Amino acid sequence: MMRAIRAVVAAAALFSMLTACSGEQPPMDPAAIDATLSTEPAPAMAGSPVELRAAFTGASFSDKVSVTFDVRLGDRPELFDASNEGDGLFNGKFTFPEKGVYDVYLHLYVDDLHITKKKQVEVQ
Description:
The protein is of the alpha+beta class.
């Protein structure tokens, strides 16, 4: 009987060590993820290149995470990939054609998960 108990305890310990060291990140909770969007220069100026900076919080992000900026010019989307700066920070350059308030959708891709956050940029 003691031998069976020891075998079960050893198997449980081995299983917990193997799963703890697997390097897998815990699943992300989409509801916990938030994003901010800023521009450099601020405010953004029409006709001049602007750096868009997206900062995501609410999870730890690996190098495999990618972000696509989706700037709406009327009903036409202008899509471009962001550079991953690490720690949930992403940036890209865009030139807004004219003054106004633009909708910018931030598309965050992690494996098979896709999260979209809508932000706005006021352009002078």
